[in-house]
Write a structure and sequence with these properties.
Blueprint (H helix, E strand, L loop, with lengths): L1 E5 L3 E7 L13 E7 L1 H11 L4 E7 L1 H13 L3 E6 L6 E7 L3 E4 L8 H10 L8 E5 L10 H12 L2 E5 L2 H7 L6 E2 L3 H7 L7 H13 L4 E5 L5 E4 L5 E4 L12 H15 L2 H16 L7 H8 L3
Parallel strand pairs: 1-4, 1-8, 2-6, 4-5, 8-9, 9-10, 10-11
Antiparallel strand pairs: 2-3, 6-7, 11-12, 12-13
Helix pairs in contact: 1-8, 4-5, 8-9, 9-10
Bound molecules: adenosine-5'-triphosphate and magnesium ion (MG).
């Protein structure tokens, strides 16, 4: 089974407005609600691809309940820790002359709640994969992923990590099965700016030396590279199509990649990941199965 952990899920409320007039009542031209958070996106995409998955993490209040219910209606099992205080954050995305995002911090996760998660992760075992995706909330130590990855390593669980900065660097010593930075996050880890696939491959090699087994670097419309655990480099150009919104493209790629590995080798996995990322970039919300398999034929 592929499990995902989302520390800070979100309800994204996307509103369209032609011109926003501060200090006045503004009428919206459209409004949409999306449920997400990076781990949740990965679970939704895995489910779309027919791969069994369970979403873990933290949720709180009425928004947390709504997310759980939505996932279960899709047929995705959930096992969230319910925080006693606060509510799962609501992010407001205003699409107007310019795009403005108002993102909440989310509810605080105390050490008791964190220990509950560790407890729940006890049910994972050999053959399982755990996806740790997204940034860690302020209330949690940036060694949290590392602590979890270490525990999973001892149990023979594969860990896939998609985060940035310190939290990503910290996890390397636990030899995660896979890490998926995007090109900007890869540069940030080394305080540099990476501009092409060759440079990305060189830095991916450094990350392998630092402990990562497989390094998947996504580069938006420039495609992706994978440096696998045998030091073989795989590259894949992005799919061609009309970009609608790239939010969740990286999460979709990670899910597609893991789904591909259930059935084939690294090349197939990289292609399915690329098609899933592309389908999301070309859709409102996450991409759907029909489009993913259509795009796969381009690759
Ligand atoms: N505009 C695009 N056109 C075609 N494919 C795209 C586009 N954007 C993303 N993709 C595909 O999705 C993959 C992941 O995208 P990207 O590198 O933007 O991830 P990311 O920055 O981690 O995204 P996020 O964190 O928002 O989910 C890319 O490697 C590519 O294959
Ligand atoms: Mg990303």
């Amino acid at each position: 089974m592929i499990y995902t952990v989302t520390f800070n899920p979100a309800v994204d409320c996307v509103v369209d407005i032609e011109h926003i007039r501060p200090g006045e009542v503004n009428r919206l031209a459209g409004e949409q609600v999306f449920f997400g958070g990076k781990g949740i996106n990965v679970s939704v995409m895995l489910n779309e691809l027919g791969i069994p998955t369970e979403a873990l993490g933290f949720c709180a209040g009425f928004t947390g309940t709504a997310i759980e219910q939505w996932l279960r209606e899709k047929g995705i099992s959930t096992d969230f820790i319910h925080l006693k205080e606060g509510f799962t954050r609501i992010n407001i995305k205003i699409r107007s002359d310019a795009e403005t995002d108002l993102n909440g911090d989310g509810p605080a996760i105390d050490s008791e709640a964190f220990d509950q998660l560790i407890d729940r992760l006890g049910k994972l075992g050999k053959g399982d994969t755990l996806v740790l995706a997204g940034s860690l909330p302020k209330s949690v130590s940036n060694h949290a992923y590392e602590q979890i990855a270490e525990l999973m390593g001892k149990k023979g669980v594969r860990t896939a990590v998609d985060t940035s900065g310190r939290a990503m660097l910290n996890v390397l010593r636990c030899k995660p099965f896979l890490i998926k930075p995007n090109i900007r996050e890869l540069g940030d880890m080394f305080a540099t700016n990476i501009t092409d696939a060759a440079q990305a491959a060189a830095y991916a090699a450094k990350l392998r030396k630092m402990g990562a087994r497989n390094v998947l670097v996504s580069m938006g419309r420039e495609g992706a590279i994978l440096l696998d655990e045998n030091d073989k480099l795989h590259t894949c150009a992005a799919c061609r199509g009309k970009t609608v919104g790239t939010v969740g493209a990286g999460d979709s790629m990670l899910a597609g990649f893991l789904a591909g590995l259930e059935q084939g080798g690294y090349d197939e996995a990289l292609k399915l990941g690329t098609a899933a990322g592309g389908a999301t970039a070309f859709s409102e919300g996450l991409g759907k199965k029909e489009l993913i398999y259509k795009l796969l034929k381009q690759l």
